Amino acid sequence: MSTGSAASRRLGLGSSTFGREIDQAAAFVLLDHAVARGLTFLDTAALYSAGSSERIVGAWLASRRPAAGEIFLATKIYPPFTAADMTAALDASLARLGVDSVDLLYLHKWDAAAATAGAVQTLDGFVRRGQVRALGASNFTAEQLAAVWNLQQSLGTARFTFLQNNHNLAVREADAAVCAFSAAHGIEVVTYSPLGAGFLSGKHRAAVQPGTRFDVSPGHRDIYFTPLGWQRLDALERIARRFEVPQTLLAQAWVMHHPGIDRVIVGGRNPAHIEQALAALAFDMPAAFAELSAT
User: Fold this and answer.
1) pLDDT of residue 200
2) CA angle, 13 as apex, 7 and 15 as ends, to 5°?
3) What's the rounded Cα separation, in Å, for the pair 15 and 24?
4) Segments making up each domain of the chain, as ranges
5) The CATH number of domain 3-293 is 3.20.20.100
6) Among 30, 72, 165, 189, fewest CB within 10 Å belongs to which?
7) Residue partners of 96: CB distance under 8 A and separation at least 6
């Protein structure tokens, strides 16, 4: 098995840094390198940099003109989830991306309106019109996922076939319940932030580093700078030292080899971050993974 073929099945490239932490030129370099190395699952969202991420991805698609089927393109729409708002959001995303359709559309976060007939029928309409080929949920619990999926099934509409949640050593939202429901219902589990937006590198221990996610988007601090987050970072550093492996490699590899997870979205600012992810994909140390899982 080549690294490229493994990457195409197990990794995707996230674009939350585009237009916020890196400009279009740097994003093009990252996209070119990622696709050359087999990361052809491209993940963006309307929310990222107020649409700038989608515009940059769209500009790259227009410039590079990949062959049909070469790229799997996913984006996300944010609440409110009324028919009119969802339709306007999808139309705006397609316009920014410069495409007529996307391979995958996620609901970006839970909202009670997601579990209504109007919302699921609107999503079904997107699929029937050929604007969207697959549907997914992002940042949903197992209970929330089940509420929508069961309604979709009862109404005979297109169902969720993807779930994307935050999952890493510090924050674990692809939990056993999520993975069990997904496995039972043919839903691919996708995770993001394998390094916790850089938290698991340990570089923010003394102070938040300028220009990083925690600097430009301070809300991330509330997610990671918690007693449990610091406790798990301590454990990662301790276990990495004992096994004599880099902690960033170990943290990413733990996610990539985690049971129940089908694909991991990795991001970055330069090609070195793609190479770091590929090294983690190839790395396997079950004893260390087991210790980390127990933290």
Assistant:
1) 97
2) 175
3) 11
4) 3-293
5) yes
6) 72
7) 46, 51, 54, 55, 58
